[in-house]
User: Fold this.
Amino acid sequence: MAAQALALLREVARLEAPLEELRALHSVLQAVPLNELREQAAELRLGPLFSLLNENHRLEELLKILMLLLRF
Assistant:
């Protein structure tokens, strides 16, 4: 499951408007046990999520990003 989260994070990083990918990432991250995420923490590239906060995205996208960041 953590591997799927890593793949979705990479996908979010390369898209201009990744709303669907953020929704999928949110679902995946909710299903992954926190200890598994912590084990993979070095591989989780959260920079693209922070970059989206600096861009002009819809409120729904920003809320999803913030929820994902709070999961960590």
Summary: Residues 2-14 form the longest helix (13 residues).
